[in-house]
């Protein structure tokens, strides 16, 4: 389910907030997550290049996990943000894609191909 809530910078989640707002599409993942690869390929086919933050490579990965859970992700990985808005999981991304909503969410972040 698309959460639609913008990450709240007032909450003690500065790193998640900064990363989520840094670029149009941000994926919080683990190196071994095959779903991250699938979402990355889907986004690239829609001409969007997401930032991928592998939390298992981050010294603060455990805190990022906790922050993502506090934001509403049932499972912290794979967590997906589009325009600072939490989309959450692969299932939600696919639901948005099948309904046609994903393209409109990603439109501001698409790269124009020549």
TrEMBL record:
Residues 26-87 form the Glutaredoxin domain. It comes from the Eukaryota. It is found in: Cytoplasm. It holds the Pfam family Glutaredoxin. The keyword Membrane does not apply. The keyword Cell division does not apply. GO terms for cellular component: cytoplasm. Keywords: Cytoplasm, Redox-active center. InterPro entries: GlrX-like_pln_2, Glutaredoxin, Thioredoxin-like_sf. Belongs to the glutaredoxin family. CC-type subfamily. This is Glutaredoxin-C14.
